[in-house]
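# step 3/5: fold
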Amino acid sequence: MRFSILASGSTGNSLYIETDEHAFLVDAGMSGKKIEGLLASIGRSMQQIDGIFVTHEHSDHIKGIGVLARKYKTPIYANAKTWQAMDGLVGEIPIDQRFHFDMETVKTFGSLDIQSFAVSHDAADPMFYTFNEGNRKLAIITDTGYVSDRMKGHIQGADSFVFESNHDVSMLQMGRYPWSIKRRILSDVGHVSNEDAAVAMSEVVAQKDTQIYLAHLSLDNNMKDLARMSVAQTLEDCGIRAGEFVHLHDTDASESTELVLV
């Protein structure tokens, strides 16, 4: 199992994942042309994509869904409430390309099991996914105001995490955003801070070689070095020494990562 974070942030989100048998996207929150270019940068193309799994209906997660679905006849997977919320936002998608992926269920594609789970965000019915192949596990969780015990149970012990570390609380509080937006980000249906992400990660990282990609970093209210230092310090305070068996990485919407083996 291999993956690449094509884009992560408020300007667009998309993740590529493949096995020897299948290839998928999680979200397509940029233009179809941009997604095609990002795939080309890792030596892949939309013709190889067997489906797109949607997390929720916000524009930075679905902007390219409609055009890619129509151009490449790509199957689209989302839960019922998200499909309803996307109506009128993604244009017409043929019925034979519209698939339901219910909350808290598993779909299997060859050797790959995909588990959906609920998160807390201001969308119709937001959910994220874990990907399991053999004894290897990738967990993706962004766009949530907090990380509940139930969420932790789903992502526990993954070999690779794509984990939201959206903002530094002090930067957000002192920043230029109007209070209404600050309140939304800080709420239980907003975004996870560096500090809260670190605490949650300290409770789900297993004592094994683990990759953590800090995702959905705010361009205005965070810095990559700050996010990484905040998470590393909290993990160390919990007895988990980053750099030994936990390897921290950062990513943003201006760059895509290489293709990573889980």
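# step 4/5: annotate
The first helix runs from residue 32 to 41.
# step 5/5: archive (pending)
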